[in-house]
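// run 5 | inverse folding | seed 20
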């Protein structure tokens, strides 16, 4: 599956104005199940924090989660880092246009970036599955966190999170370097990095897997065939979204014995 061309097409359309881009963020917040899980964890974390907070958005991409966290009440400083120069430049321009001077973006390699005891929160969404040297990245996160800080990760599990079920299968998303983590594997790598306080649970259980197929997989496959499908997307989602929203709610509020995603909360 070639995601980058599709993301670029959608990004170019919604980047025509800051207001369209904010609308795009809102749509992603509703549509993407991982966002439901991440927002739930962030709301829970935010209730435990008083005073100024420093946040690292590790692999900030299009800036969706940076925008959400930039609206936290109180004094917030946020750094988003990514290896893609075009996305970093784009995010800097967008947040500057909004007057959000407490948010900045830099080109950084997570296998090398660390800022000793600098952050209250490190957020890493759909990044670890792209990096071979994942333990090095986790060690950098640990070093960059203040004592008592939280690391929040969303990543595919080994239960089909990349839609590959055998070692010889190609990942559904071509940029992935692994077909997901088991809970035991993730726990072991966190321990190697220094973490001892952690909670790892499945996301994308049965409700989420159905929602993902309807709301993401099928539309993406169609867009890979022809961009003309963009015209039909609003009508498609008009039918599908009520069911997808119900399934997203069920998935994000239930515990799952298995699932194609992992949500990781680790504390220093």
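// decoded
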């Amino acid at each position: 599956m070639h995601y980058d061309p599709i993301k670029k097409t959608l990004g170019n359309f919604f980047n025509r104005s800051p207001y369209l881009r904010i609308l795009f963020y809102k749509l992603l917040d509703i549509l993407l199940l991982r966002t439901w899980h991440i927002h739930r964890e962030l709301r829970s974390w935010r209730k435990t924090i008083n005073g100024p907070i420093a946040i690292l958005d590790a692999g900030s991409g299009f800036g969706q989660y940076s925008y959400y966290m930039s609206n936290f009440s109180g004094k917030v400083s946020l750094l988003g880092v990514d290896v893609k120069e075009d996305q970093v430049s784009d995010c800097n321009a967008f947040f500057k246009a909004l007057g959000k001077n407490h948010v900045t973006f830099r080109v950084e390699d997570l296998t090398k970036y660390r800022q000793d005891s600098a952050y209250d929160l490190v957020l890493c969404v759909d990044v670890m599955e792209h990096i071979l040297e994942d333990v090095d990245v986790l060690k950098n996160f640990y070093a960059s966190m203040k004592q008592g800080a939280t690391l929040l990760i969303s990543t595919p599990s080994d239960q089909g999170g990349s839609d590959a079920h055998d070692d010889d299968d190609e990942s559904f998303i071509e940029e992935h370097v692994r077909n997901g983590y088991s809970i035991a594997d993730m726990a072991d790598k966190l321990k190697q990095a220094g973490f001892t306080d952690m909670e790892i649970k499945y996301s994308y259980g049965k409700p989420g897997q159905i929602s993902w197929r309807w709301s993401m997989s099928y539309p993406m496959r169609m867009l890979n065939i022809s961009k003309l499908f963009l015209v039909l997307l609003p009508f498609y989602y008009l039918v599908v979204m009520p069911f997808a929203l119900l399934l997203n709610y069920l998935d994000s509020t239930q515990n799952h014995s298995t699932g194609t995603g992992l949500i990781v909360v680790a504390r220093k």
